[in-house]
């Protein structure tokens, strides 16, 4: 038995006969039909040219800002004030203008051991020796600028720079507090400077495959 649809009802896959016009007529009404486009009258530039013009407009906008808005920043200028004598912590961080970068949260703190002794954060030379032992690989051996060596602590475990700065500052406080506690107990423990020697060899380009010469030996050995 054949199934018949009621009058006025049609399947979804069937188009109305009135809506089905000639294909040529439909293509003629298509605004994206290439054949119906007019001839190029050389009155416009291609898309790449428009992109270059947009770039030049952006540069011109920044040039106007530099010429009109930058002079207003003089009102916020402050005279330079050198750091105080007790400001011995040196903090280094990177800031990427206009974009979020994962390296912007990293904070590196450097402090000289001699400065910690000067501001009396360390009680004695024995406490300074214990501090070097506690710091481990974060202690850099004495060089031409740092007569007593320095501590270098970095942190990027937290999402914000201020949090990492607070963490490294607290580590220095805890190290000084522990170094001042019974420093004579570890006075006879020698300091391991292998990490500093490795860093120094990398700075000078003294690779491991290069054979040592007489200039590399201490004078008292020769």
From TrEMBL:
<dbReference type="GO" id="GO:0005763">
    <property type="term" value="C:mitochondrial small ribosomal subunit"/>
</dbReference>
<dbReference type="GO" id="GO:0003735">
    <property type="term" value="F:structural constituent of ribosome"/>
</dbReference>
<protein>
    <recommendedName>
        <fullName>Small ribosomal subunit protein mS35 mitochondrial conserved domain-containing protein</fullName>
    </recommendedName>
</protein>
<dbReference type="InterPro" id="IPR019349">
    <property type="entry name" value="Ribosomal_mS35_mit"/>
</dbReference>
<dbReference type="Pfam" id="PF10213">
    <property type="entry name" value="MRP-S28"/>
</dbReference>
<dbReference type="InterPro" id="IPR039848">
    <property type="entry name" value="Ribosomal_mS35_mt"/>
</dbReference>
<dbReference type="GO" id="GO:0032543">
    <property type="term" value="P:mitochondrial translation"/>
</dbReference>
<feature type="domain" description="Small ribosomal subunit protein mS35 mitochondrial conserved">
    <location>
        <begin position="79"/>
        <end position="221"/>
    </location>
</feature>
